[in-house]
Specification:
alpha/beta; seven-stranded parallel β-sheet; four-stranded mixed β-sheet; 11 strands; globular; binds nicotinamide-adenine-dinucleotide; binds magnesium ion
């Protein structure tokens, strides 16, 4: 039976891994919408290869180039924020939400609105929108399946069990490329060093988030919304080998873990085939070769991000959206060489301490909080660059 699929963020790392799996079972899939930001040559190439119905660039200025690249193909081309939302609204059995950052929020909400299955990679959207998103999922009868490897692992470990029997959930963290660096070394960390993850091949933003541990902080908030066990029952443990992707502990003392290679095609395949299974080309897990699986507690002094995220989750309301927006701006500033690595977390803390808007009640509220937090975050960075006092 043919299934329809849309991929929001088709040219990124998750988009490429998803399309790799779709390509291997091409006769089973019909591609509805593929979207990207500025990389329209790649977007057009993918749209042609997969005979998509529509290709959308979020950057309206790139639309003429996209139209030209798709000339004669019969594939519709569109551009801009409204076109992205319109594409996400097209009926599809499954939509992979793989845009990076809060830019993916409106299209993800639009996909939820059509009531299909959403494979959620875009954690920033759920972190920012929180209950606005989870209540929309319930209202529209949509199904949210986690692509993020940890949450996908937890989802698999929960299958067939009763949430009331869960004692705790533990997210594993690789610790990133700077896991063993001293505080002094961290001050001098460069963007090139930060984007080189030891285990995973990912986009630049999430790679920096792994280095700061904001990725795990965002994932803690993501887990809080996906698996309602209470924040106290959500834990983080550093596991440098990235083989155990997360664990669920039950009240009887059993702990279930999901293991696999560090290849995002494994969780993506579990989402694409759910509730069944599909073949993947991933290298089988060879535990004898891995040899050792080690675990240790995270260090929240060198890496304050998980502490900040837990505080934001405890505060609830708009705090996670503010944390996420401030982090996105700080990561961009770090990648652009404007601030040092350790300033990222310090900057997020500064923004959180000076901006505490009321809880958002709808998508427009979340978008407004995100925009205001970004503006404040940019201003703080500019002032710091001018040498002005930040208080
Ligand atoms: P990436 O940078 O490789 O790709 C991002 C995609 O989003 C691209 O297609 C890009 O064109 C598009 N995009 C960027 N800015 C946009 C904008 N303003 N408007 C519309 N589209 C835009 O990122 P990635 O590593 O694939 O990550 C995507 C999401 O998946 C992130 O939220 C990330 O946290 C999450 N995730 C990624 C991985 C991974 O292994 N890469 C693992 C778990 C979760
Ligand atoms: Mg993850």
């Amino acid at each position: 039976m043919t299934r329809t699929i849309s991929i929001l963020g088709a040219t990124g790392s998750i988009g490429a891994s998803t399309l790799d799996l779709v390509r291997r079972e091409a006769d089973r899939w019909r591609v509805v919408a593929l979207t990207a930001n500025g990389n329209v040559a790649e977007l057009a190439r993918l749209a042609r290869e997969f005979s998509a119905e529509v290709a959308v660039t979020a950057d309206e200025a790139c639309l003429p180039e996209l139209r030209e690249a798709l000339g004669g193909s019969g594939i519709a081309a569109a551009g801009g924020a409204a076109a992205l939302v319109e594409a996400a609204q097209r009926p599809a059995d499954i939509t992979i939400a793989a845009i990076v950052g809060c830019a993916g929020l409106a299209p993800t909400m639009a996909a939820i609105g059509q009531g299909g299955t959403i494979g959620l990679a875009n954690k920033e959207a759920l972190v920012s929108a929180g209950e606005v998103m989870t209540s929309a999922v319930a209202r529209h009868g949509a199904t949210l399946l986690p692509v993020d490897s940890e949450h996908n692992a937890i989802f698999q470990c929960l299958a067939g069990n009763d949430m009331r029997h869960v004692r705790s959930i533990t997210l594993t963290a690789s610790g990133g490329p700077f896991r063993d660096w001293t505080a002094q070394q961290l001050c001098a960390a460069t963007p090139q060093q930060a984007v080189k993850h030891p285990n995973w091949d990912m986009g630049a933003k999430i790679s920096v988030d792994s280095a700061t541990m904001f990725n795990k902080g965002l994932e803690l908030i993501e887990a809080h919304h996906l698996f309602p066990v209470g924040l106290d029952a959500l834990r983080i443990i550093v596991h440098p080998q990235s083989i155990v992707h997360s664990m669920v502990e039950y009240r009887d003392g059993s702990t279930l873990a999901q293991l696999g290679p560090s290849d995002m095609r494994v969780p993506i395949a579990s989402v694409l085939a759910w509730p069944r299974r599909m073949d993947t080309p991933c290298a089988p897990l060879d535990l004898a070769r891995v040899g050792e699986l080690t675990f240790h507690a995270p260090d929240e002094v060198r890496f304050p991000a998980t502490r900040l995220a837990r505080q934001a989750a405890e505060a609830g309301g708009a705090a996670p959206a503010v944390l996420n927006a401030a982090n996105e701006i700080a990561v961009a500033a770090f990648l652009a060489g404007q601030i040092g690595f350790t300033r990222i977390a310090a900057h997020v803390e500064d923004v959180l301490s000076c901006y505490a808007p009321p809880a958002p009640a709808c998508l427009a509220d979340v978008v407004a909080v995100d925009a205001e937090a970004r503006q404040r975050a940019r201003l703080l960075i500019e002032r710091a660059a001018d040498g002005a006092c930040l208080t």
